[in-house]
Structure to design on (631 residues):
RNA sequence: CGGGGUGUGGCGCAGCCCGGUAGCGCGCUUGCUUUGGGAGCAAGAUGUCGAGAGUUCGAAUCCCUCCACCCCGACCA
């Protein structure tokens, strides 16, 4: 709120400081008598040319001495995640407040490259770009009913007349308002509008740098249709477009069937960048296109039924063995033959009901699934367990228990299993449903899927991985169109509610996700398509060797002419520190220009992930690099 | 919001228990030497010790209040 209520002119000293800084960037214009080395003047000249507005962020050549590079040897203590640490160390971002980051020049180049790829592919798909206000009046949100529903995640602000506004966390309301005002006829449909814009969500806990910032850059698109069939067609078009975008970004990703969550509507897919640090667990089937969030993935019963009862039930002493793993090891039986009983209290009219949930020893409870069966529930307290079973947790089981039992599908097909004896220090072996205890009252899917489970589509086994959600597409259907009366006249001249889809991409999050996926002990490894610069030209002994200076400048110019985004490191740093910088920053290709190689007419090439450098004839370097960049 | 933790120069940290001169490494500035993997020597600059109130002759250190930030949980691009 402080930033909102403090007028910018009261931040005078900072403001003036910026002015002074920018003046210093322009000495050739303001102070022509300034003295500088010829190399530096050269650099300033090229900086001035490249700084013209029509040649803005991407493209154009750059010299390292004039670019704002600030790398750190040690990562600030605030960062935990590898991508966050590397972004801070490489100087791509600086933190202003919790979940608020400045994109430094180097980082902004990456962000803009991601943004441009998203924009190009969206344009190719037939979507049309527009830009909506970040600040939105409360009335629209009240009309859709979300002013109160959205909750504290929405930053609400007041203007000088005490009128309510919010800093847009999303734009369904605004776009639907545009559509209802501007679209009158079926002839104007379908239409897909998108924007790339800053959103603000007052996250409960911002973390991981730009991966979960409060202010972030998002591509959000919205489509309008005369029929559900046409929405489905466009949804498929966006699905394909998203696949092209993430492929071009050089990311390993997966489209995942998703819940529709708070935004509502039916059909929905999330796009996840695969990374071990991802916040979401994903189950997928390599043999088919099945993929789902682990919380949602259906755990089907193992194929076939168990072998049937082979042995008699026996009570075995298992002193001190309370975990399934320990019991199985102690008895010399496989973990998959044990059954764990989890005691919960399910909410019921007129008090709670004590329920035993049965899971195979190697499986974990999925509380969301269990709640779908039992309603609201919590774990039972120790005293409640003793009351119901006469025994403390660790040795409990369903044998002799007369209350409600919910068994997971995979437990229902087990035989000769091991479970607690409801007596401290004892377990039962050879337990069979229908013989030693009644069949469970309810059989349901109440566990998380595990690696190797059959895919719900029956086409192979599931594998697990973790992912970072970078995109999400929804079929909104008529949720917002109805609330905001967004209608059109059909061919019969009848009023119809529009079908809508919405399609989001977390542009700034992609930068973090790409780094999670591409890094090593030396730093970031950017894909060619989004690296801040594609090639670093690194001269050895730049200040003293005219041959090196000439060759480096010539190569730099040649690369730029060939359309390759190259930076010339004219800082005359020591070689080790230049190498370390470019490796930390993640520039994918490096060319070293040194007197040693020049004597034989050669330059040294090294890809960011290559173990060894390659000598390349100087005259062939540009061709060589072009091939590298295509392949 | 619940739980855990941290605030000391640009970054990483020590000092706090046991009150008395604010310190180290990196970075920065200047000079000389060095120049194919984060150089060496020398000289320097940079701190309202997160803020406020209190105890005390004296507070980075003890007490109180507040703030900021980070980490673990429920939300989401």
């Amino acid at each position: 709120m402080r930033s909102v209520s403090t007028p910018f002119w009261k931040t005078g000293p900072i403001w003036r400081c910026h002015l002074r800084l920018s003046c210093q960037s322009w000495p050739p214009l303001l102070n022509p008598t300034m003295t500088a080395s010829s190399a530096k003047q050269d650099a300033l000249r090229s900086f001035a040319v490249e700084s013209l507005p029509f040649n803005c962020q991407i493209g154009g050549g750059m010299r390292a001495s004039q670019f704002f590079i600030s790398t750190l040897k040690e990562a600030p203590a605030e960062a935990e995640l590898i991508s966050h640490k590397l972004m801070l160390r490489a100087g791509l971002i600086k933190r202003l407040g919790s979940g608020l980051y400045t994109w430094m020049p180097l980082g902004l180049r990456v962000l803009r490259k991601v943004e441009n790829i998203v924009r190009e592919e969206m344009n190719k798909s037939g979507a049309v770009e527009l830009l909506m206000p970040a600040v939105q009046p409360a009335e629209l949100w009240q009309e859709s009913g979300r002013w109160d529903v959205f909750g504290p995640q929405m930053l609400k602000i007041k203007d000088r007349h005490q009128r309510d506004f919010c800093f847009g966390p999303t734009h369904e309301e605004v776009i639907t308002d545009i559509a209802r005002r501007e679209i009158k006829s079926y002839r104007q449909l379908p239409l897909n509008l998108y924007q790339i814009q800053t959103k603000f969500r007052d996250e409960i806990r911002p973390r991981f740098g730009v991966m979960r910032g409060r202010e972030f850059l998002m591509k959000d698109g919205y489509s309008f249709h005369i029929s559900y069939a046409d929405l489905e067609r466009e949804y498929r078009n966006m699905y394909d477009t998203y696949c092209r975008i993430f492929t071009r970004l050089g990311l390993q990703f997966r489209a995942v069937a998703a819940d529709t969550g708070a935004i509502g509507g039916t059909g929905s897919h999330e796009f996840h960048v695969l990374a071990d640090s991802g916040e979401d667990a994903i189950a997928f089937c390599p043999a088919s296109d099945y993929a789902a969030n682990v919380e949602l993935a259906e755990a089907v019963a193992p194929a076939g039924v168990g072998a049937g009862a082979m042995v008699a039930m026996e009570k075995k002493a298992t002193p001190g063995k309370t975990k399934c793993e320990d019991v199985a090891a102690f008895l010399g039986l496989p973990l998959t033959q044990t059954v764990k009983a989890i005691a919960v209290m399910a909410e019921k009219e007129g008090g709670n009901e004590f329920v035993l949930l049965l899971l195979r020893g190697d499986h974990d409870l999925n509380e969301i699934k269990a709640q779908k069966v039992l309603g609201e529930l919590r774990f039972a307290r120790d005293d409640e367990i003793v009351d119901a079973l006469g025994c403390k947790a660790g040795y409990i089981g369903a044998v002799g228990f007369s209350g409600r039992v919910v068994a997971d599908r995979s437990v229902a097909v087990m035989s000769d299993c091991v479970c607690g004896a409801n007596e401290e220090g004892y377990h039962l072996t050879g337990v069979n449903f229908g013989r030693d205890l009644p069949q469970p009252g309810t059989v349901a899917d109440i566990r998380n899927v595990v690696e190797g489970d059959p895919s719900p589509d029956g086409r192979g086994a599931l594998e697990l991985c973790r992912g970072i959600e970078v995109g999400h597409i929804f079929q909104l259907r008529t949720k917002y169109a109805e609330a905001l009366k967004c209608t059109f006249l059909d061919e019969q001249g009848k009023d119809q509610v529009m079908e809508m889809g919405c399609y989001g991409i977390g542009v700034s999050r992609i930068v973090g996700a790409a780094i999670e996926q591409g890094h090593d002990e030396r730093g970031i490894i950017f894909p060619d398509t989004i690296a801040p610069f594609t090639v670093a030209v690194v001269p050895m002994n730049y200040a003293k060797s005219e041959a090196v200076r000439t060759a480096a400048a010539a190569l730099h110019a040649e690369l730029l002419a060939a359309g390759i985004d190259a930076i010339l490191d004219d800082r005359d740093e020591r070689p080790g520190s230049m190498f370390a910088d470019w490796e930390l920053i993640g520039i994918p290709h490096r060319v070293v220009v040194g007197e040693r190689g020049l004597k034989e007419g050669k330059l040294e090439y090294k890809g960011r992930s290559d173990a060894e450098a390659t000598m390349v004839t100087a005259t062939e370097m540009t061709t060589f690099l072009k091939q590298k960049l295509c392949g």
